[in-house]
Amino acid sequence: MTVKATQQAPILSGFASVQPATDITIRALQPGVLTSLSVLPGESVRAGETIGRLGGPQIVAALATAQGASQAANAALVAERGKFADHLSTRAAVTQAEAAATAAQANLAALRAAFRLQSPVAGHVQSLAVGTGASLQAGQAVAVVQPAAGAWVRAVLYGSQAAALPPGLAARFIPANGHPAMPVTLRGMADHQADGGEVLAFAGTGLQPGEAGIVRLSLAPRRVLLVPSAALVLDDGRWWVMLRDANGDHGVQVVPGATEGTETPILSGLEAGDQVIVQDAALLYHRGIAAQYQPPD
C-alpha cells in the first residue's frame, strides 16, 4: 500500500481524579532565572494571575529559536502559496506548509505562556520556595497556593508535550462511572512525578470530589504519515516496515505514534508515496531467520 500523508490532531489523555480544594504548588515549566516575583505569603491571588516571570539566557535562547522557527514556517507558507498560484505546487504541499506554520506558532505561544508563572486557582499564597534571582529548573517549586474554594481535577499526562502545555487549554474530564463528560480548563502544572508524569491541575464546574476518570485534550494538528497497523513488525524492541522500492523488498526502521483504529501514524522513517508491504509483512521480514540457526545434531 502507498504511504499517505494527512493532518492529525494529537490527543493526550491520562488518568484523572477530582480533588478537594487542597494546596497547589506552582512550578516552573521551563528552566530559567526568576526575574520577578509579585506576591508574598498571605496575599490573595486570582485564578490565572501571574505571580512571577522567568528570564535569563536559557529563556532568551529558547524564545529566539521558537521565533525563528515560526518566521521560517510563515515564510515557507507564503512561498508555497505563491508557487500554488503559479501552478508550480500542489494543494497538499500548501496544506502541509499551513500545518507547519500553525504548529510553529502554537509552540511559540506555549513557550511565551511558560515564561509566566501563574496561579492555577484563586486563593492565598501559603509559602514561597525561592526568591527573585533564583535559577530554576523545569518542574521546580516556586510557591504554594491554598485554593479559596472548589474542587479541581488532578490529571497525570506523559510525554514532552505534556510538560509544555499552556494554561487556559480546553480539555474534557470523562468520569469512569458513565456520567457525562465535563469541560475543564488547564490551570497549570501541579507536580512532577519521578516516572516522568506531569501532574496537571484543571478547573471546572460541577466536579464531585472523589470522582475518577480520564482527562482528554487535543493539540494543534500536525502532518503525519499513515500506514496500516498490520504493516508494522516489532523486532528486538524496535519497529520496522517492509519497504518495496527499486532495490526490492527490505526492512526500514520507523518510529510509530499511537495506533488509531486500523492505522498507525509514522513519525519518522518513511516518506509520502513510499510503498509498504501489508500482507504477511512479519513473515517476509523474518524470511531469512532460519539461516541464523544451526539445526540440532
UniProtKB/TrEMBL annotation:
<dbReference type="InterPro" id="IPR058627">
    <property type="entry name" value="MdtA-like_C"/>
</dbReference>
<dbReference type="GO" id="GO:0015679">
    <property type="term" value="P:plasma membrane copper ion transport"/>
</dbReference>
<dbReference type="GO" id="GO:0060003">
    <property type="term" value="P:copper ion export"/>
</dbReference>
<keyword id="KW-0813">Transport</keyword>
<dbReference type="GO" id="GO:0030313">
    <property type="term" value="C:cell envelope"/>
</dbReference>
<protein>
    <submittedName>
        <fullName>Efflux system protein</fullName>
    </submittedName>
</protein>
<dbReference type="Pfam" id="PF25967">
    <property type="entry name" value="RND-MFP_C"/>
</dbReference>
<feature type="domain" description="Multidrug resistance protein MdtA-like C-terminal permuted SH3">
    <location>
        <begin position="224"/>
        <end position="280"/>
    </location>
</feature>
<dbReference type="InterPro" id="IPR051909">
    <property type="entry name" value="MFP_Cation_Efflux"/>
</dbReference>
